[in-house]
Amino acid sequence: MPMRTQNDTHLQFLAMDFGAESGRGELVTLCENKIQIEEIHRFPNRPVNLCRTLFWDFPSLFAELLTTLRVCADKNLFLNGIGISTWGVDFGLLGEDGKILANPVHYRDARTNKIHEYSALIMSREEIFAATACEPWTISSLFQLLAMQRDHSPILKMARSFLNMPDLFNYCLTGKKVSERSIASTSNLMRIDGDWCHDIIYRFQLPEIFEELVEPGTVIGNLSPEIAPQPDMANVPVIATCSHDTAAVAAAVPASGSNWAFLSSGTWSILGRLRSEPVTTPEFLENGFSNEYTLGGWFLCRNIIGLWLIQELYRKWDTSSDPWNYNRMIEEAARAESGPIIDAADKCLLAPDDMEDSLLDLMHRFQQPLPDSRGELIRCVLESLALEVAYRLELLCSLSNESVDSLFLVGGGSANNLLCQLTANACRIPVYAGAQQCTSLGNALTQAYALDIIKAPGEIRRIMRNSFELTTYEPMASSFWIDRLGQYKRLTV
User: Fold this and answer.
1) 17, 90, 167, 245: which one is catalytic?
2) Residues 463-483: pLDDT tens digits?
3) Which of 185, 235, 317, 470 has its CA 20 to 30 A from that of 256?
4) Which candidate, 271, 247, 265, 294, places its Cα nearest to that of 410?
5) What count of other Cβ atoms lies within 10 Å of the Cβ of residue 155?
6) With contact defined as beta carbons under 8 Å apart, do 413 and 269 qualify?
7) Which domains does the chain have, with CATH numbers?
8) Residue-wise pLDDT tens digits, 282-321
């Protein structure tokens, strides 16, 4: 095999994006202030239910990472860096000898179901939020550790190091133990000033097993020779990028100026707004908002149900005798008139046995007219999703005392023209849609920042604008949508 040589005209980064259902390795090429992306390897992420505990199959996921590296070697690619982004909150524990003590437990495991009853005796949700700026989710790292403490876990007693998922991958690649701040900000264990919250650790009597915190865009070390598929790949730097997938998105939104928000639209959606300081008022917490860290500072955010509703309808309707696809669904919805709407955040929609039945039950419950066709039902879902975004964006602006004059819609939902237009209508501001692979792009461009190729976080946004054509959706029928939003708010009370 010929020796890999660096191309002076372009730089190549491997961005590993581990999602909760699947993962992929993306080759991101930076050349003349433009960026291109190519999928190298895709793989499933299947949790394992073993002895009444739901685990991530970390060895399998790491094997897929090694496979991706071998593909890069086989393609004779020169990599300027490797970065890992994953979902938040979950972690692995290392023992005295540096070995992983057990497979990381899945955030959906039942061990934290009643943990607030245990934790509230020591520290309230409001106190935790004020200290960490992160909404105290039942699934956060803090509460997972408390569940282990409550259950007298021998693994917790043996633990000497705590590493969130991307930090665990980085450790296995380099042998270096560090904690990156964007992923740590999901844990309820990192203070607003960027250090570990030793007060929380002390009050809950957790072990001091937390590693040095570093900024996103920090070179950790080189790929270990034992890991490198070819000897000349052992000098590839492994970089603590924006390790939380949402933080990578926030870093790469192709916006300019400051008066904008973003919506990362997929199965689930994240509504966000960059800010130099987090908002930690009780009202912010009461309305389900949180703060997370990214390259250059904080962003305000809220989880919103996304295209999961459409995906579940597709799963039910697509049969051999009556084939459906997403294009057909959008076409049918576009032909339908505006009709009923539902509370898109209703808990009955989170994991129903039958999504169609649950949607119809919601309409019946709130005395909404039932749709006459599947197209009308899809239209109802899409309009309701758009109104949910508008409602939460209005709340975000009110609670942060800041206005927004545009919304950047990225991720898979940016390809849904009807959803984008409805979102612009409901929010009554322009929507700019594009950049579907924003997680991997933010991951790679943060790597370039770490290597001083990109000099400032704002340059990342400029490169994104240079690289991707955005579609503009101007708001329409303003008075109709003002009334529509009022109707939606009444449904959510």
Assistant:
1) 245
2) 999 999 999 999 998 999 999
3) 185
4) 265
5) 12
6) yes
7) 11-243 (3.30.420.40), 245-435+470-493 (3.30.420.40)
8) 999 999 999 999 999 999 999 998 998 999 999 999 988 8
